[in-house]
Amino acid sequence: LTLEERLANYIVEGTKQGLFDDLQIALDEGWKPLDVINGPLMSGMDEVGRLFNNNELIVAEVLQSAESMKAAVSYLEPHMEQRDVKKKGKVVLATVKGDVHDIGKNLVEIILANNGFEIVNLGINIRSDELIRQVKEHKPDIIGLSGLLVKSAQQMVTTAEDLKAAGIHMPILVGGAALTRKFTDTRISPSYEGLVLYASDAMNGLDLVNRLQH
Ligand code: B1M
What we know:
Elements: H1 3-13, H2 19-28, H3 33-53, H4 59-76, E1 89-95, H5 103-113, E2 117-121, H6 128-138, E3 142-146, H7 150-165, E4 172-175, H8 181-188, E5 196-199, H9 202-212
Parallel strand pairs: 1-2, 1-3, 3-4, 4-5
Helix pairs in contact: 1-2, 1-3, 1-4, 3-4, 5-9, 6-7
CO-5-methoxybenzimidazolylcobamide binds at residues 45-46, 48-49, 52-53, 59, 62-63, 65-66, 98-105, 107-108, 144-146, 148-150, 173, 175-178, 199, 201-202, 205.
């Protein structure tokens, strides 16, 4: 197998045996950490999603794949470029209520933190009232919401309404597999007082918040 195939396979198989050695080989060959994540590791995760959809994997196996992905991201994180050290702004991040997927959100955390943002990561399955409490406490410049399930897209609409009702109107960055720009513009934006930005991936999220803070 090629290095790329092996890297994808660690995620599909949900194993860490040999993973770090191969990640190090990729780094030594000059791969950028984010290209490893967005390339072979993500294609492994897409394959996991496909197999899961076809009932060829059970949740416990998908969880193992998630563990491998998290371990790989942790290994690569110290090798990522740190751009601005000057603090650009504070972001409160959460996966919305009813949703426990956190790999994408944590990737957003790493990328924003490496680029000068202060991150308060609230975790997964965060209800609006908890989010509102934390936003009032931390007073961020931006709120970041992640969701991967179809129902999470609807939950973002509800969350936006709840934030609006609480008098909160700082920009919201939304992302996650079940979301689209169209859904964001037609359903989430009209439910909120402030700006709602849709990010297709973590790097796009960084671009958007960078533009906001300039
Ligand atoms: Co779940 N799961 N899962 N799962 N899971 C999906 C999402 C699914 C598409 C798989 C499938 O059926 N093909 C499907 C959703 C169907 C739907 O609603 N349309 C699904 C399902 C059904 C479920 C359960 C309901 C299964 C069950 O119990 N029967 C259950 C739900 C639990 C719940 O949330 N209440 C469930 C559970 C799980 C595990 C716990 C086993 C595990 C998650 C572990 C964890 O996160 N700690 C898991 C996993 C791993 C997946 C897949 C295979 C991979 C997700 C992932 O981590 N991708 C996923 C299929 C797939 O996506 N291919 C699937 C890698 C990650 C880096 O990508 O999070 O998309 P992603 O982030 C991207 C972008 O979306 C974006 O940037 C990232 C890239 O740079 N992004 C943002 C994300 N958040 C952002 C926020 C931003 C900006 C960008 O700003 C704030």
